[in-house]
Amino acid sequence: MEDQKLTTATSESSGVSAASPRPRRLRLSASIRRLVRETALRPDDLIYPLFIRHGQDLKLPIESMPGQFQLSLDRLSAEAEAIADLGIPAVLLFGIPAVKDACGSDNFNPAGIIPRAIAIIKEAAPDLIVISDMCFCEYTDHGHCGLINSPGNAHFDPNLPLGYLLNDPTLELLARASVVHARAGADIIAPSGMLDGMVAAIRRALDGDAMSHVAIMSYAAKAASVFYGPFRHAAHSAPGFGDRRQYQLDPANRREALREIALDADEGADILLVKPALPCLDILNEARRRFDLPLAAYQVSGEYAMIHGAARQGWLDLERSALESLVSIKRAGADMIISYFAKDAVAWLASA
Ligand code: PBG
Questions:
Q1: Quick one: pLDDT at residue 1?
Q2: What CATH number should be reported for the domain whose range is 39-351?
């Protein structure tokens, strides 16, 4: 008797008045959750990064990025076809040149690693969008994202600090390399060096070379983040001295990030990118409110490595952690996400 009273008193229908909100009604079953789901991750949202190198028949595992590889040019056609077959619309290319020098000349050499890679991919999978990451850090012998102020350099300026990244001379090289990549067939140029005026300089150069159809995805707000560590290992692009804080954003600054994004929108960027992704969701979300242009987010190497590292220990479920982070990035406002999980995510989504 006593028991029954207790049950009645605490039963769902009597404990809370009819007017109380019961949001849990819409979470009762998998089907109703599907019905009210606000954000859906699709293969169409994803961009897959590729690391490309010289050599023959190479697929070298990147230790700090499980499941990612450096691929030699001769393995690219098959990889491009496989990515296109999965329904992923775009790839982002990073090159590891045979030789590095002070000005990163492989980047603007029409026979350099990336122009060759672009041509191979466009031939193998013509509908796959090729985005060329436009930066010099993989190509310079000092590992910085452009020309460095030092005596002996043709652009040496004694008024500027030694080791300073020379902005405007680097813009000329970025413009030149962008035209070379566009001529090789790149659909989108993605300047990632955080130099002042890079979008305007590249737009002008492309338009001046009958490449007005080529789009620019600007790394508009890119923080000087520790989470790029595994990438620098993968792309052999760690700076030989100092760090990138004189050109990349202080991760502590949100308003400055938004000013940077506004500048790139004004300069003619077609797509605005925020990076890294999870650490910058607030910036991404505010950019979504303020700008109408498509927004991209880059889930960077360290974000990928963290999830893999924890999954390896058995501390996190790999698939669910990856998918939850991707959907969170989309929910915050990204129209597209660059992710090393792209291929896995497509497979996971298909079997969900
Ligand atoms: C080149 C570039 C970097 C990344 C993308 N483009 C490295 C850097 O700025 O040091 C990082 C991507 C990643 O960590 O996955 N400037």
A1: 43
A2: 3.20.20.70
